[in-house]
Amino acid sequence: MMQVRSKVEATIREVAAEHNKSLPQLTDDLPLLESGLDSLCLAVVVARLEDGLGVDPFSAADGVALPVTIGDFVKLYEDAGE
Amino acid sequence: MKMPESDTPSLRALVLAAGDGNTRFVADEATRLDLSALTSAPSPTPLLGRTVLLAMKRQIDTAAALIALDGVARRIVLWPYDLPREHMDVVLAAAGVEFLVAEWPLGTLDQVGAAAPEDGAPWRATEWVLFTSGTAGQPKMVVHTLFSLAGHLFGGAASAKGPIWCTFYDIRRYGGMQILLRALIGAGSLVLSCPDESPGAFLARAAAAGATHFLGTPSHWRRALMTEAADRIAPAYVRLSGEVADQGILGKLREQYRHARIVHAFASTEAGLAFEVEDGSAGFPASLEGQTGGTAEIRIEAGALRVRSPRNAIGYLDRAISAIPDEAGFVDTGDIVELRGSRYYFAGRRDGTVNVGGQKVHPEEVEAVINQHPAVEMSRVSARASPITGAIVVADVVCRPGGTASADATPAAIRDFCRARLAPHKVPAAIRIVPNLEIAASGKLVRMRA
User: What is the C-alpha separation between B327 and B270, in angstroms, rounded?
Assistant: First the structure.
């Protein structure tokens, strides 16, 4: 589980750095879109995690609620890996 | 110079006719337009019969200028604030711009006033020039009039208490312009976003203003649902257009806003509105094809959607105005549709254009950059579905033979190379190094359709 979390957080940091976005401390209750990531960054994070972790939790289509916070986002990937 | 002998009312006259009820406003974060002051102000006569380019940072200033200038200026060019400055000189020359209404740094402009049309040349209705992303990154200018944009709203009965519109679109593009005109002509109100405002802050402000009708692209809506403010709005009407609405986002919106009418629509700057779908399913019923009697008629030809409607644009502007429709009067949208059962579904653009959250990307432009990388032999850029932006750009890359032992030929290095040369949404999110790419007998790269 911790591996998934660290991979997700590392990918977020990597993409933020590439897009010259500065990130605050990543805490679970931090709203995703207030973290400094815009939706393009998030789309890149999701694409890269799909390649890196081999899962796309969003492909479950209708069932998945869109994540609001960093914690929601990490949990999507943790749940998808189970 | 005389005022034109127009057979249609001006925007100012329509705003005046719509009345000024208590609920009527057009506002952003800091400003609320005084519509009665705008409609009673004297005409800006120095701009009579002139071509004016509007390039303001805030949408609301553009709205005020439009009320003042429709029926006065011969041509109004609506520069989208996010359009790269490098296109300005071409636009100024092609549109014959004589006056700029601008408030952001434009650098040195040589062209203004250079191509003034003959004074007194006859004209009837003000041309509204809107931008669309054309091929090879060069924006296309599309000419409308107030009538082609909003003629369907003229003479409609304005309700005493019009809706309060809220849109994620920018009013300087076709989708947002439709909402501005609906609000102004139909006695509604409108909440506009501000530059650099976060989606959460904008929605919270819309909630506080009591907004009832919300419009945006599927990507706008995905982003909205990722904010806590999504719970604060109570829309009566939710509309999606500008990108393909998939079942995922339609389902999520239905779940979140149980009491709202949820509508997805197809419209383009050139074709205008083609249809609206309200049954909650992606795609559109095949029975819409060939129907007459509605505003727009649609046809599927060679797999692509065509639209004929009084809301079609007048033409493209490139020094002269060229017609867009075919001989039968239909505009070819370039959108490929596939029939499955009794429904058509969108299956990408004929030219392979990728739509990243509403921003168009031409694969050839990205390939041209990747192919400049010294370690790259060839590349193929395509779309991958994204739950956040609808689609995202990805690339397959073949490296030069002889195994350029250089460490350069890594996905990360190629990505950095692209980042230095392309807008962020054009940079491939994922790059795969592949042994080869299929070439068709024609010598062209085989492209998979998304």
Answer: 16
* Residue-level pLDDT, tens digit, chain B, 450 residues: 455 566 789 999 999 888 765 568 899 988 999 888 888 888 888 899 999 999 998 999 999 999 999 999 999 999 988 888 888 888 999 999 999 998 766 666 666 665 555 556 678 899 999 998 655 567 889 999 999 999 888 876 555 667 999 999 999 999 999 999 999 998 889 999 988 888 899 999 999 999 999 999 998 998 899 999 999 999 999 999 988 898 989 999 999 999 999 999 999 999 999 999 999 999 999 999 988 777 799 999 999 999 999 999 999 998 777 888 888 999 999 999 999 999 999 998 888 889 898 888 989 899 999 999 988 989 999 999 898 998 999 999 998 876 555 557 789 899 999 999 999 999 999 999 998 888 777 777 777 654
Cα R_g (chain A), whole angstroms:
12
* Contact call for residues B109 and B95 (beta carbons, < 8 A): no
Cβ distance B198 to B204 under 8 Å? Answer: no
User: How deeply is B395 buried, as exposed, middle or buried, from its count of CB atoms within 10 A (0-12, 13-18, 19+)?
Assistant: buried
∠ CA B59-B65-B70, nearest 5°, is: 125
CATH of domain B11-339: 3.40.50.12780
Comparing CB atoms, the residue among B227, B384, B392 nearest residue A33 is B227
- Other residues' Cβ atoms within 10 Å of the Cβ of residue B416: 15
Interface probe with B: pick from A40, A53, A68, A72, most Cβ of B within 10 Å: A40
| Residues B336, B25: Cα–Cα separation, whole Å | 40
**Region B354-433: CATH code:** 3.30.300.30
The answer, as to whether pTM is greater than 0.80, is yes
Range of the domain at A52: 2-80
Mutate to test the interface with A, among B197, B203, B388, B434 (most CBs of A within 10 A): B388
- Is B251 in the A-facing interface, judged by CB distances under 8 Å? yes
Ranges of each domain in chain B: 11-339, 354-433
Check B357 against A65: CB less than 8 A apart. Answer: no
* DSSP result, B400-433: PTTT--STT-SHHHHHHHHHTTS-GGGS-SEEEE
Q: Is B200 on the interface with A (CB under 8 A)?
A: yes
Would you state the structure tokens that stand for residue B280, as one six-digit string?
């909650």
Coil, strand or helix: which one is A3? Answer: helix
Say what the ipTM of the complex is.
0.91
Cα separation values, B100 from B76, B91, B248, Å: 10, 12, 44
- Sheet with B390-399, side-by-side order of all strands: B376-386, B390-399, B430-433
- The tally of domains found in chain A comes to 1
* Same fold across B11-339 and B354-433: no
Q: Give the count of alpha carbons within 13 A of B176, CB side only.
A: 23
